Amino acid sequence: MPIVSSNSSSSSSKSWILHGLAAGAAMAAALGARAYLGRSGRIRSRVIGIIPARFASTRFQGKPLAHILGKPMIQRTWERAKLAATLDHVVVATDDEKIAACCHGFGAEVIMTSESCRNGTERCNEALQKLAKKYDIVVNIQGDEPLIEPEIIDGIVKALQAAPDAVFSTAVTSLKPEDAFDPNRVKCVVDNRGYAIYFSRGLIPYNKSGKVNPQFPYLLHLGIQSYDSKFLKIHPELEPTPLQLEEDLEQLKVLENGYKMKVIKVDHETHGVDTPEDIDKIERFMRERNLS
To answer: What transmembrane ranges does the database entry give (predicted)?
Structure first.
């Protein structure tokens, strides 16, 4: 905690004290959660894939139902996820009846969740609680990557299974230079053992020239992620953290609370859908490669 000089106001001193107390409470909660998780020595073998989907979106209303070469995007995501060898089951979690009806139409199981879910992680957690069967690992498969490769899903599951000290796993790929300063393309840095250090909407690492270094292997974060199911239950109870709020990246809440996150690097041509214009790009890509 910073030292407050003798000429500082009492209100300033009080604010630092309150900040310290809040930080201490957050640390105690995180330590308690880690102790709770640490009591389990089981092998995390039972795995479910959950595709969170919502209709409301600032940039693209009704995105999960947008058609890509004749099929709704949510269906294409579900079909790709079903090909993953490590998933015992795949469900869609949504708060929208139109999305639910669409998913039922192509044979997917749907778990209805509340509108109050603030992000995909919370939606996955609520869906997990409503499932009759118990699972050790939950894979959050974002519906706006309709060409996600099943091998990537399998990769992050196996990475989490092989890292008992981690509660979270995700994937990165090479960042294209033209995406370096795009805030919608989240960047990641990892340590020498493959654990995440930081995520940012800005370019990381950032050099003194302020320009992209063509020799540096920048990493782009892929939205797919998996969690230890016990940690997923704890996650909503952890208070939002300063870095998470500033960057608007929920992965940072995990790191700020001292949890370990395993990261694998994959070769993947990203085809995420952020805006309606991205649909045309994906359809052109699929036609060029004769993908149905």
So the answer is: 16-37
